[in-house]
């Protein structure tokens, strides 16, 4: 679903936004600008990493989810649950209890996403054996990283391992099992409990695919709070016969930093944190890093344990899951319900679906125009503008850097007079008066911000 459409899960509420610019400075792809005192999103640059969501001090950035009542549109309601949901609870809370609460909320089947990694292991091994593929191969597990490469490092798209995520493998499995048991596809709703915004975007507009087996997404903070409230009164819960976990120890921690890389042969590296990933990819693109076979890249610190929709400390979540994995015995890997076949029974069927079938296309933030000659002219103009701009990236123009302002100008999204240093120079040369300069600042930062300051100073003067 890449025909020019890219869904974004992040929404800026203008009625709350104060235009503080913290989100603009945090964005790794410079996808935010300040205009009229509000943050504005440049959609073709956004990778839905959620860094702006983390930094916003007034909660003006929200992450959408599907209406929970949608699950009742389906007779068979599957909750795909990642292990990091369980990792947020204290040790005495079992997966069986979490599963029971989810079923009391309306789901008919609760299935662990990490089962899908069992299909990924041999698929990664197969693709690693193809010596004609470039090295290092880059995991496609994290949608924010895939989009980051599309936007900022298009030359590395060829390095992406064209494999679907465990989430999709688990969804294909659940649908196939239910169909084999007599359910019609239209009766099956598969809902993913997501720890981050990028996975919402990946479900709504999958990269390299026309469709997805996942019906909808529900934010993890919403589910966590519902489970927490219910667990306070355990007496109301029916008894559950579900097992604690039905995955192997190594796949239980697949979503954590080094969880995937530790299962891949060869020289592998695991990098987490969007800024660390960006820095590493810059060095890789410049051929400063060689000899690596496989890269596990995660946009969040500690992998999915650091997802923006988790309510608990990421280090505690990672510690709990690793402790559970150490205490989990491989022989405990049995089906949660005796009458449902294990995912290994569908190994051949799922391996046929594991590859991303369509080309992963670039949507480079550096491409100034679709016309090559025009793009070259715009690039030259941008470089000339950089000779005039101060290069200190103060952000007072409403853009995160001088380079981004220059690109905005050649794209007709900005004006050189937005730069405070250019305006000061023009005022010294009497090419601009202070009223016009003040008007430009108000256009960027909003008239209300200036009015507030004036009123505050006026009140202070009166009190004196």
Describe the structure.
It is a single chain. This protein is α/β, with parallel strands linked by helices and about 475 residues long. It is about 40% helix and about 10% strand. It has helices at about 20-25, 50-55, 85, 95-105, 115-130, 145-150, 165-180, 195-205, 220-230, 250, 275-285, 315-325, 345-350, 370-390, 400-410, 420-430, 435-445, 445-464, and strands at about 10, 30-35, 40, 60-65, 75-80, 110, 135-140, 190-195, 215-220, 270, 295-300. It has a four-stranded parallel sheet with strand order 6-5-8-9, sandwiched between helices. The protein has a three-stranded parallel sheet with strand order 7-11-10, covered by helices on one side. The protein has a two-stranded antiparallel sheet with strand order 1-4. α11 links the parallel β10 and β11. The termini are far apart.
N- to C-terminal distance: 64 Å
How many strand segments? 11
The spatial strand order of the largest sheet comes to 6-5-8-9
Oligomer status: single chain
Can you summarize the main beta sheet?
Answer: 4 strands, parallel
Sequence-ordered SSE layout with sheet pairings:
Elements (H helix, E strand, L loop, with lengths): L9 E3 L9 H5 L5 E4 L2 E4 L9 H5 L5 E3 L12 E6 L1 H5 L7 H10 L4 E4 L4 H12 L8 E2 L4 H10 L13 H15 L7 E7 L2 H8 L11 E4 H12 L17 H4 L15 E5 L1 H12 L8 E5 L15 H14 L19 H5 L20 H17 L13 H9 L9 H9 L5 H12 L1 H17 L1
Parallel strand pairs: 5-6, 5-8, 7-11, 8-9, 10-11
Antiparallel strand pairs: 1-4, 2-3
Helix pairs in contact: 4-9, 5-7, 14-15
